Amino acid sequence: MVSDPQPAFVLIRPQMGENIGAAARAMWNFGLDRMRVIAPRDGWPNSRAVAMASGAGRLLDQAQLFDGTAAAIADCDFVYATTARPRGLTKPVFSPEAAMQDAHARIAAGGKVAVMFGPERAGMENDDIARANAIISVPVNPEFPSLNLAQCVLLLGYEWRRIVTEVTPMRVDALADWANQVEVEKLADHYQERLDQAGFFFPDHKAANMQMNLRNLWSRMPLTRADVQMLHGILRQMVRWKERG
Questions:
Q1: Could you tell me where the beta strands, DSSP code E, fall in 108-180?
Q2: Are the C-beta atoms of residues 23 and 117 closer than 8 Å to each other?
Q3: pLDDT digits (tens, 9 = 90+) for 150-198
């Protein structure tokens, strides 16, 4: 299992084993394995949780079970409560991203941190929220603020992963067999020749500008050699089809 410092995710009175299993799977997707479960409605261990967890079953095997919220967070220095409605309690309110940044800084300084998630049906009760040091408020649709337990766990797990792992905003497969300039040039020549034969570059006084725009189009496109071959093939087939007609 993961040994890196990380927050504990605390599930308060979860109602369905399937949701616990889905939460475990969501945690393990993002490298989190510190699950604490408070008074699960359907008992513990739970076969439905194990079935839903799929490859994250080891996480459930090591999950800590507690009777109440106070005991589950007793060893923590800072605790966040996830809720769509802060309910008027005077506490710092973080976005998910800012909360995980704050948690990471606290853990890096040697602190122990927990994130609490409420029951599926009604969310976290004020008594639980009152025990937290801060609130994580997810910017959901105010007309439909309820998040599934596993969805909320997934969201916080993702934000944590973004902080501890370098995420590349955009990449292209480095193994792609890119077309070189000569291949793209030949493709451009092929299309220009066939389009010219078809009378596409009309009227004459606009032909040069149209041809330049077409060349510019090819140069902007990141083409692989397979792309070039396919585009050649498309044009050849269209010409054959027209000649048969």
A1: 113-117, 134-136
A2: yes
A3: 999 999 999 999 999 987 888 776 667 889 999 999 999 999 999 999 9
Element (H, E) at 69: helix 69-72
* Token pair recorded at residue 59: 């996480």
- DSSP category for residue 7: P
Q: According to the model, what pLDDT value does residue 2 have?
A: 47
Residues in a beta bridge with 80: 115, 134
Mean of pLDDT values over 125-154:
89
Please say whether the beta carbons of 37 and 64 come within 8 A. yes
Cis peptide bond N-terminal to 45, omega within 30: yes
Strand order across the beta sheet in which 134-136 lies: 64-66, 35-38, 8-12, 113-117, 78-82, 134-136, 93-94
In a 3-state reduction of DSSP, which class is residue 35? strand
Compute and round to an integer the Cα radius of gyration of the chain.
29
